[in-house]
Amino acid sequence: MVSKKIKSITPSFTINISAKVAKLKSEGKEIIDLSIGEPDFMTPNAGKITAKEAIDHNKTKYDMVPGLIPLRDSIVKKLELENHVKYSTSEIVVSSGAKNAITNALTAILDPYDEVVIPAPYWTSYPEMVKLCYGVPIIVQTDKSNDFKLTVKQLSEAITDRTKIVLINNPSNPTGAVYSKEELEPLIEFCINHNLIILADEIYERICYDHPFVSIPSISERAKEITILVNGFSKSAAMTGWRLGYTASNIEISKAISTLQGHLISHPSTIAQWAGYGALKEGSEDMKHMVSIYKNRRDTILPILNQLENVGYVNPQGAFYLFLDLSAYKKFYNNHDSFSIAFCNQLLDEHQVAVVPGIAFGNDDYIRISYATKIELVIEGLHRIQELLSFIKK
């Protein structure tokens, strides 16, 4: 009874893991959950106060499809001040989360069978989103020697006359890798020369540790013209449940996205938008504090990772994930279809630690760990991973 399109979609690994963790917890088991990519902070007080004031003043009616003007104005100021790129308010479309922003962009751009280049490892929903929008995901296997960042050579070998979009997630989920300006410039130039649109998912852009973040559309006016910038409030402002994201793009694309959104959801919750407005206006110190905590956690964890036997990892320069290379242990799981799933199941069942198998991100040699939780839990989780690895070798 359901569509062929839906039958082609792979269920979310992370949702399945969350369901299993919930079941085990309901049975009374204490689980260290390092699987979820959700900040362990609360919405900035400024966001909550502004949302409450909006309710008290009955700001609960329909509003403009692309979002509240005060919020879009604040996003414009934020992008100019922090990302060093100038947009007009009419080039911003606020959505119900960054997922909604991405699917809006894909739907507005793709015709059936258009191709979208997706570097692997990738966020687990990207290929499924492309398929739901009648596009074709083209997965490009990148190399761990440069932290799995896409190169011009890899891109040039992947495109065809059907290629329309190149998707770049920076900082990366799941790897935590961050592109430098020198790495982005040749990719942008290639896309300009081949009439390709860049879908730049920069949802983790505030969570950047070692070097200033470089936003793709800030590199040049030509880069800005071909880029659809996706951002939101879930990660940097710990506003996951408010479901608030946005796109910034040229006026032709922003109008198309707004037209589409007008028929699908009208606009995001007005109260969520006022919360986002408050967070942007007065929550910057809260956001900086979160990032400082994440950085301290990362710096505490890396020496522990270096002690894990035969375990490699991508140096996390942003986001709040560890992408661990366990390929040295793959030979012990030859009777399983997926090494990373088998390992993660054993880790959860026998050591009560939940992490995400790398196959969810297109690389079965790895697992992803989130350190968006108490550092004590992360350290204990890593110790239990070491216990399992030691047992495997016996």
Automatic annotation (TrEMBL):
<dbReference type="GO" id="GO:0008483">
    <property type="term" value="F:transaminase activity"/>
</dbReference>
<dbReference type="InterPro" id="IPR015421">
    <property type="entry name" value="PyrdxlP-dep_Trfase_major"/>
</dbReference>
<dbReference type="InterPro" id="IPR050596">
    <property type="entry name" value="AspAT/PAT-like"/>
</dbReference>
<keyword id="KW-0032">Aminotransferase</keyword>
<feature type="domain" description="Aminotransferase class I/classII large">
    <location>
        <begin position="30"/>
        <end position="379"/>
    </location>
</feature>
<dbReference type="Pfam" id="PF00155">
    <property type="entry name" value="Aminotran_1_2"/>
</dbReference>
<dbReference type="InterPro" id="IPR015422">
    <property type="entry name" value="PyrdxlP-dep_Trfase_small"/>
</dbReference>
<protein>
    <recommendedName>
        <fullName>Aminotransferase</fullName>
        <ecNumber>2.6.1.-</ecNumber>
    </recommendedName>
</protein>
<dbReference type="InterPro" id="IPR004839">
    <property type="entry name" value="Aminotransferase_I/II_large"/>
</dbReference>
<keyword id="KW-0808">Transferase</keyword>
<keyword id="KW-0663">Pyridoxal phosphate</keyword>
<comment type="similarity">
    <text>Belongs to the class-I pyridoxal-phosphate-dependent aminotransferase family.</text>
</comment>
<dbReference type="InterPro" id="IPR015424">
    <property type="entry name" value="PyrdxlP-dep_Trfase"/>
</dbReference>
<dbReference type="InterPro" id="IPR004838">
    <property type="entry name" value="NHTrfase_class1_PyrdxlP-BS"/>
</dbReference>
